[in-house]
Amino acid sequence: MDDRSEKTKKYWDDRAKEHGESWQATLGEEYLRNLEIRTIIKLIKKYKPSRVLDVGCGNGYSTKIYAEQFPDIHFVGIDYSEFMIQNANMKPIANCEFYVGDVLNYDSLPSGSYDLIITQRCLQNISDYDRQRIAINNLLRKKTIHGTLLLMECSKDGVDQINRLRIKLGKKVIEGIEPWHNKFFVDDNLINDFGATINHFTSTYMFLSRVISLKCHLLKLASYLPAVGKFGYDKLYIIT
Question: Phi and psi for 142 in degrees, rounded to 5?
Answer without folding.
Answer: -95, -10
